[in-house]
Amino acid sequence: MAVVSVAATALALTPPASAEAGALSLTGVHPSGATYAIEVPRGWNGTVLTFTPGYGQGAGPDHLPADLGGDAASRAWLLAHGYALAGSRPYGDGWAVEETLKASADTLATFAEKAGDPAITLAWGASMGGAIAAGLAELRPDLIDGALPYCASVAGPVAMLNQSLDAAFAFKTLLAPGEDAIKLVRLASAEEEARSTTAARTVLDAAQQSAAGRARIALAASFAQVSTWSVPGTDEPAPRDWEAQQAQEYAAFMPTVFSPRHPLEQRAGGNFSWNTGVDYRRQLRESGRLQQVRALYDRAGLNLDADLAALAKAPRVAADPRAVSYMEDYFTPRGRLGVPVLTMHERGDNYPTVTQARAYADAVRHAGKNPLLRQAFVDRPGHCRYTGAEFVAAVRTLHDRVATGRWPDTGAHRLNRLAAAYPDLGTAEFTAYHPGRFLRPHVPR
C-alpha cells in the first residue's frame, strides 16, 4: 500500500461495494482488550484515517471506547466529505506504544473485514499517538500510505526524557542539592514519584520568589528547551523581555521537566536516561537561551560560570542499556520513512517541545528520506490545541500527496488559505517557522 498507483488514486473516489449500502458505525473490543471505533459515511471516498491517542489514554478493564482523532468539527467535516474514520485505544496504560502499534494493525484488519479494503489509509495521532503514527510510517508501511503525527513526541522517548533529566539535574544541583526527596531516575513506585514531584514543586515555587531563583530556573529550563511562550491565552513576550519569558518557563517547568517517569521506567525495565558526558556549558550555548540566562544572572548578581562549573563537577546519571533498547524499539524514530509524513506542531508546545520537530527532520534527512517529509507549524502556545480548519487543511494536504505522488505547497500561506475555505471550523494560524536544534537527539544505530 505504500506506493499508490494512478489506478489506486482513481479508486479513492469510488466507494467500495460494502460502503455503497449506507453508513457504517461500530465499536468493539479486540482480543487484546484494546478497543476500536469505526465510522464509514455514505458515499465513502475510499480513504480511511486511523487514529491513535496520547499518553495515559488506555482502555483499561472498563474498555473505554476508542477516539477517532482531530476535533468534533474536523471529524464532522471529514465524514461529510466521504472520509472514513477509525480509532484504537490500547488496553495498556502509560507509554503503551507496544500495545498501540498492535492495536492499530488489528483495527485496520477489522475495518477491512467490515467495510472493505480502503484505497488510501492515513495514520494520524496526538502526542504519544503521533509518535505511534510516525512509528507506523517506519515499521508498517504495508499498513498505511501516509502519516500525520500532530503535537507528537517525534524525537522519541529516550531523547525526550534525556532533556528532562538535564533540566531536573541542573534544578536539583543548583536549587535543592540536599533535598533527598527529589529523585531524578530509578523511581521505585508511583508514591515515591509523587513525593519527589511535590518536593520539587515546593522548591520551584520558593525559588521563583527571588531573582537568584528565577535565574537558576531559567538556566535549568534552557536545557529542556522549555518554551518562553507556554501559557495558552497569553501574548508572546517581547524578544528581550527576559522576566516575562522566565515567567512562561516557570509556568511550564513542572509538567515539562518532571513529567511522569516511573511508569516509563517500569515499562522499559529500568532507567533509560543518562547525562554522562554532557557538557552543560555547551548545551546552554546551543539552546538559544544564553542571552536570556546571562541577563537574568547579571540582574541577580549571580556568577553563571560558577554555576556551570558546579554542574560540570556534579555526579552524573548512567542509563540501563536494556531499558534504552526497549525505548528505542517502542518507539524511537530512525528516520527511515516508508510513506509520506506531514508533522504539525504548535510553536509554544512543551509536551513535546517544538524542537523535537527539528530532531525528527534531522533523523529523516540523515536516513536519506527527506523528500517524504514535510512539517507545518502553528503560531500559538499550548499542546494539541488545533482548530478544525487546521486539521482539515493538514489532512487534505497529506491526502493530496498520497493520491498524486507529489507534495502540494506546504507553506504556511497556502495552508492558511486552504483552511480559510472552512470558516465554520475556526481560524488557522499556520506560520513559517524553523525550530532550533534539539539539544539531546538520539537515533538508534
From TrEMBL:
<dbReference type="GO" id="GO:0016787">
    <property type="term" value="F:hydrolase activity"/>
</dbReference>
<dbReference type="InterPro" id="IPR029058">
    <property type="entry name" value="AB_hydrolase_fold"/>
</dbReference>
<protein>
    <submittedName>
        <fullName>Alpha/beta fold hydrolase</fullName>
    </submittedName>
</protein>
<keyword id="KW-0378">Hydrolase</keyword>
<keyword id="KW-0732">Signal</keyword>
<feature type="signal peptide">
    <location>
        <begin position="1"/>
        <end position="19"/>
    </location>
</feature>
